[in-house]
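Researcher: Final request for today, and then I'll write up notes for the group meeting. The sequence and the SMILES for magnesium ion follow.
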Amino acid sequence: MTTPAIVVNDLSKRYGNSHGVLALDHVNLSIAGGTVFGLMGPNGAGKTTLIKVLTGISDITSGTASVAGFDVQKQSLQVRARIGWVAAEVILEDDFTTWENLWLQARLQDIKGWEERAEQLLQYFGLLDRKDDKVSHYSTGMRKKLEIALALLHQPTVIFMDEPTIGLDVATRRMLWDIVTGIHKEFGVTVLLTTHYIEEADALCDRIAIIDRGRIVAEGTPSELKARVKSDVVSLETSEALDPSVLSKIPGVQEVRAQGNDWLIQVVASEEFLPRLFATVRTDQIRRISVEKPSLETVFLQLTGHRIAEEEPMHDIRKFYAQMRRARS
Ligand SMILES: Nc1ncnc2c1ncn2[C@@H]1O[C@H](COP(=O)(O)OP(=O)(O)OP(=O)(O)O)[C@@H](O)[C@H]1O
Ligand SMILES: [Mg+2]
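Model: Predicted protein-magnesium ion complex:
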C-alpha cells in the first residue's frame, strides 16, 4: 500500500476570535500518493482554507495535518520544499518573459540547476519556442500552462490547484483537464484540486471529498458517490402555489422540497413519475420541468439539501442573462 501523501486528522480552522467563522469543522482525510483528489463544494465551503492550511499559509485551530510525511505546522519548511501551488488568481510577472518568470521562481525558491528542468517543462507544455516572449502576450491557456510549470519547477511531490479552471472558456478548461491528467502521469505528482464544477471532479479525480460549510459530507470515488443515490430528481417550477401533499402523495415520490414555486422532487423512477404528475397537476400550472439522473450534483443535493452551484459566481454570461430574463418575466 502506498503511504498517503496527505493526512488530515480532526482538523478545525476558525478565523479570528472564538466568534469567527468556523471554516473547517473536524475534517478527516487520507489522500493516497500518486492520485488526483478533488475537493468539491460551493462558495465558502472551506476549500481554499484547507489548501491554505496544508500549504502552511494559514494556521490550524485544532487537529493535525501532514503533507508528504511532514507535519504542516511543525515541519513547514520540509512541507514547502515538497509542494507546488497553483492559486486561483494569476501570479505571473507580466513584464517578464517566460524564461524570466522561471528564473524568478528559481530565485524565490532557491532552486539550483533549474535551467534543465525549466527547459523540460517548457518542452512538455509546448512553450519552448516562446520562452523569450513576454507573458503579457500570452493567451489564457498559455498563462495557465506557465503557472503550472512554475509550480512544478522544484519537483514537488504534491501539487495543490485551487479552482484551476474557474472563469476559463470550455475549450481551455478541457485543455487544462488534459494537463492535470498529464502532469500526474508524467511527473508522478499527487494532485489536490478544488472545484465547483461537478463534471470536472467527475472527469479528473480518482477520489472526491464533498465539502459543505466546513464539513466533509461524503468521500469516495465518483462512481461510489453516484451509487449512493439511486433516485432521480425532478425539478419543477409551477405558475401558482401547490399543496405539497398533492405531490408527495404521488406513488414513487420519496421526498418533496419546496422553495416558493420551485420544487425538488426525489422519485424512484422519473419515467413512472412523470405520467402520474401530468395526471395530477394541470400542464398550464407547470412552467418548467427537468429530470436529473443520479450524478454528483444529485449526491450533493441529497446530502446537503441544497445545490452546489446555487451561489456560484456568474462566470457564464449566458447563464447570467438567462437568469435575468427569468427574474424579469
Ligand atoms: N481570512 C479570512 N478571515 C475570515 N474569514 C475567512 C477568511 N478566509 C475565508 N474566510 C471564511 O471562511 C469560510 C470558508 O472560506 P473559503 O475561502 O475556504 O471557501 P471556499 O470553499 O474556497 O469558497 P470559494 O468557492 O468561494 O472559493 C467562508 O465563510 C469565508 O468567509
Ligand atoms: Mg476558494
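Model: The CA atoms of residues 77 and 170 lie 37 Å apart. The chain has two domains: 4-226, 231-293.
Researcher: Thanks, that's everything.
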